Amino acid sequence: MSRRVLLAALFGVLAWVGPLRAQTNDPSFRVVNNTPNVINEVYASPSNERSWGQDRLGTEVIAPGGLHIVRLPADGNCNYDVRIVYQGGSAEERRNLNTCQMVDLVLGGGAAPPPRTAGPQGGGNRAQPGSQQQGNPSFNLVNQSGRVIEEFYASPSAQQNWGPDRLGDEIVQPGATFAVRLPQGDCNYDIRVVWQGGQSQERRNVNMCALTNYTVR
């Protein structure tokens, strides 16, 4: 009798531990909006991917004080990059988050997020003291040119070469958007767009930290 009781207890423990271990491999998490701003979009993509993917909110928004559960596939991947876009266009990003070990992604503590859409007079674009502006230069490339973009280069203005094609093996179709991820730091970039057929366009000394979308027409 005691042996049966012991086996039953053992199976009960295994039945409880099994779901618990499965939960630790689940990258899903809650976005908690403690800012005074409405969150319009939430992106969560594996850190090794180049694109932000789909807006995880769909047609919903997260009001100040609200929360939203972001469901992600339990496929063994735990490292995610997260991008939050607020009403008005300001955005913030979190990189290389282990979301399997995270229940809540809490945004703000009553303070507004740093804006990224302010112009030269706006201030608050995450510049740091010093002669060279610092911040988050990542942005969305929006193709409204009516032509296929085959290559896209973005390199710090102080750099002597264009560096890698930011699209990799991908292209940007007319009307499409591509998330260009750049390292935190320098804000001033030179931009080069190459369309299908070889025609190109360049812009110099663009303050990418002040942009959410870079539209090519």
Key attributes of the depicted protein:
217 residues, Immunoglobulin-like, 2 domains, three-stranded mixed sheet, 1 helix, 14 strands
**Which whole number gives the mean pLDDT?**
78
The helix/strand series, from N terminus to C terminus, equals: HEEEEEEEEEEEEEE
CATH class of the largest domain: Mainly Beta
CATH architecture annotation name of the largest domain? Sandwich
Notes on the structure:
There is one protein chain. The protein contains one helix and 14 strands; from the N terminus they run αββββββββββββββ. Strands 3-1-6 form a three-stranded mixed sheet, with no helix packed on it. The chain is globular and about 45 Å long. About 15% of the residues have low confidence. The protein folds into two domains: 84 residues, Sandwich (Immunoglobulin-like), CATH 2.60.40; 82 residues, Immunoglobulin-like. With 217 residues, the chain is mainly β. The termini are far apart.
Architecture blueprint of SSEs:
Elements: H1 2-24, E1 29-33, E2 39-46, E3 67-70, E4 79-86, E5 91-98, E6 104-107, E7 134-135, E8 139-143, E9 149-156, E10 177-180, E11 185-186, E12 188-195, E13 200-207, E14 213-216
Parallel strand pairs: 1-6, 8-14
Antiparallel strand pairs: 1-3, 2-4, 4-5, 7-11, 8-10, 9-12, 12-13
Quick structural overview:
The chain has 217 residues and is mainly beta.
